[in-house]
Design a protein that fits this description.
The protein is an alpha/beta fold and 284 residues long. It is built from 11 helices and 6 strands.
């Protein structure tokens, strides 16, 4: 269930750095702006075949005293809160949005790839139906950087916190029209995951190369899903909301922040927004 959670404008000032200007790195040091000790910002990819950390990341973890993720993955009530937000609002079901032909396509697809009858999931948000398919996009046992960080925090007896609540995160999928979510799901079903698997493999290559700028570009320009259409909802608005929280947490104590790598680059990315807020952000 936790793996479900597991995502560019004009030049505004002389302090702005565009996506093309960023160095290839998934680990960045946050310093300056009255911070007594540096904190670190790490870009993750939520599902991967290998969630091991290199020595620079391990040192950053050793040099910090708390870990902050997008959400608190160690919250004992996380699964219950997630379950409470899985269903479409206002009594809507999948049948309200698809033709009989498209329903049959989805029904056959879910039986083939998940062995599950679609009729038992008609009121689940299309996004959640899509996330059930994520494990099928990797030909390996799935690992998670976030879950590895939770383990490290427990080993080091450190707090785990979140930049937003699970409720905040899941509201995104009430903002994005269900019809658009279903259209994305139908593309996956009609293509039988071929495009999605190829696309995810490319994303993993870019992540391995630590090319966060190209990773962002690939995600928002993907014509096969609605991500780019709702970039403000998926990324930009959330990034802006995080900056004051990052400042407060980093001021309180040296912190290891880990968010999806898609949040780092771009004019409205976390790196550029932190620089605008007066921090020195340095690639490691």
């Amino acid at each position: 269930m936790k793996s479900i959670l597991l995502t560019l404008a004009t030049f505004l000032s002389i302090f702005s750095i565009t996506a093309q200007d960023l160095e290839k790195s998934t680990l960045w040091k946050i310093s300056g702006n009255t911070l007594e000790k540096p904190s670190y910002l790490f870009g993750t990819i939520h599902l991967t075949c290998n969630a091991s950390f290199d020595e620079d990341v391990k040192k950053a973890l050793d040099d910090t005293t708390q870990i902050v993720l997008e959400i608190d993955m160690d919250d004992p009530g996380l699964q219950q809160k997630m379950m409470g937000n899985m269903f479409m609002k206002n009594g809507k079901t999948l049948n309200d949005f698809v033709s009989e032909e498209d329903y049959k396509t989805l029904e056959t697809f879910f039986l083939e790839y998940l062995g599950m009858p679609l009729k038992t999931m008609l009121n689940i948000k299309p996004f959640f139906l899509s996330t059930m398919l994520y494990p099928k996009m990797l030909d390996c046992p799935i690992q998670s950087y976030e879950l590895e960080l939770v383990k490290i925090a427990k080993t080091q007896d450190e707090d785990i916190k979140g930049l937003e609540t699970i409720e905040d995160q899941l509201k995104v999928f009430d903002t994005i029209p269900y019809q658009d979510q279903i259209n994305d799901l139908l593309k996956t079903a009609k293509d039988k995951l071929k495009y999605d698997k190829e696309n995810f493999a490319k994303m993993l290559e870019l992540y391995s190369d630590e090319d966060i700028s190209e990773l962002l570009k690939m995600v928002v320009e993907d014509k096969n899903n609605s991500f780019g259409k709702y970039q403000d909802v998926f990324l930009n608005n959330r990034n802006k909301n995080w900056i004051s929280k990052i400042k407060s947490l980093a001021t309180d104590q040296p912190t290891f922040f880990a968010v999806g790598a898609g949040h780092l680059a771009g004019e409205e990315g976390v790196i550029n927004l932190l620089r605008k807020a007066g921090f020195t952000i340095t690639a490691i």
